[in-house]
Amino acid sequence: MRDTHPNEERLFDIAATQGGYFTAAQARTSGYSRALLAHHAATGRFVRARRGLYRFRQYPSSPREEVMAAWLAMAPDAVVSHESALDLLGLADTIPDHIHLTVPRSKRSLRPQQQVTLHTATRPPQPDEIVVREGMKLTSPTRTILDVAQSGGAPDQVARAIRQALERGLTTRDRLLAGARHRGKRVEALVEGLLDHTVR
């Protein structure tokens, strides 16, 4: 018979890569039955963040743990994107009011939690358009900048992100221009104009 004894060390190792959070499915792979998971939540050993999502109570909090919780609740279909990705990439000077996640168009029926904005994409981020930060999957700098530009982000916000990304070597002028050409005339003109006024 398969060993189903709970392996707390394994579950903690998983949670440690996710800001202390873990899903019910991850707990089950570590040997926790639904009843045992409910027991630990009731006694306070685990904190129930929302349905199917838990957190080790003793794990130290982090500034972006609410983004991690929102992403895990929608994973594996979602990636952190738009203004939330700008923040995690260090390309913004403000923290967004909402958590932005991108999901495939086929998942548009997913119901987001409060303070979460879901973006649907006919062309979901490809593997080379995804990076990992603080244990979360998010859109790459180039994809993020183009997504924000296309969704109507403030031009000064886009300009700041472009400047910082270029200065830090996170993208290139050619990559941004090539990507913008597939986003329509408005985005192409905006990105080209901002690049022309950005020190390269």
Structural write-up:
- With 200 residues, the chain is α+β, with helices and mostly antiparallel strands.
- It has two domains: 8-56, no CATH class; 65-196, no CATH class.
- It is 42% helix and 17% strand.
- A three-stranded antiparallel sheet has the order 1-3-2, sandwiched between helices.
- β7 (130-133) and β8 form a beta hairpin.
- α6 (141-150) crosses α8 (173-180) and α8 runs antiparallel to α9 (185-196).
- The mean pLDDT is 89.
Strand order of the largest sheet: 1-3-2
How far apart lie the N and C ends? Answer: 63 Å
Strand and helix order: HEHHEEHEHEEEEHHHH
Global shape: elongated
In total, the number of strands is: 8
Q: Low-confidence parts lasting 5 or more residues at pLDDT below 50?
A: none
Summed over residues and divided by their number, the pLDDT gives a mean of: 89
* Main beta-sheet strand count, sense and barrel state: 3 strands, antiparallel
The percentage helix is 40-55%
